[in-house]
Amino acid sequence: MALIEVEDLTVEQGRFRLHVPRLVLNAGEMVAVCGNNGSGKSTFLAALAGLKPYRGRYRLNGRDFSALSRRERARLISFLPQGSTVSLPFEVSYLVLTGRFPLVKGSRYRDEDRAAVEEALTAFDLAHLKERNFLELSGGEKQRVLLARTFVRKSPVLLLDEPFTAIDLRHQHRFLRLFRETARSHLLVAVMHDLALAIEHFARFLFFREGRLLYDLRREDLNDRLLSEVFGCRIRLLRCEGHYLVEVEGEER
What we know:
By secondary structure, the protein is α/β, with parallel strands linked by helices.
């Protein structure tokens, strides 16, 4: 089922221009957004989240995005921005609970909201930190809290901009398993800078370069030439016993 459909999506920020000619993203997909710094990855996710004005056609869950209320958008999309943070001294469990706010009817959280929080705290290895002040946590722990806050809403679409900032390797691989489980019934789109990690775990790739969606590819279609073109350096993609390695040989001339 198509959850996101865009056609001639254009976002302008000063001299920078993002353009996506046509794209359809479906429930059940786990999509990596890749490219060099400044290629438009974060702008793309922010536009899908409704945080950037755009021109063109954008449909979310079969409806025109501009016709949806802010609450409807928030119920359908959970967005983790790049470098997201919170400066208020909330307890971890309460901060995660606030991720459920768009689902609240009335002014009070329900038992099902608190049950979802407990589930998210366990999934992101935060149960032992639930009563801690968010501001006292390490950078990686804060990022795990913000991920839990994003996932606790259980929205059909999850947009994650650099979700593994400051997170250690053990938790990265644990959360990637969770991402795969979630993406069986949801759409998960994540900006990824670790190309080898992305190729190992994601099935579909959107490659941006200089504000353009250059390629929309399945993992099996990736090759050295395409990756070298996207990143502007010589890249070798190695397959070894079902795993992937990325070797950077130097800049393109």
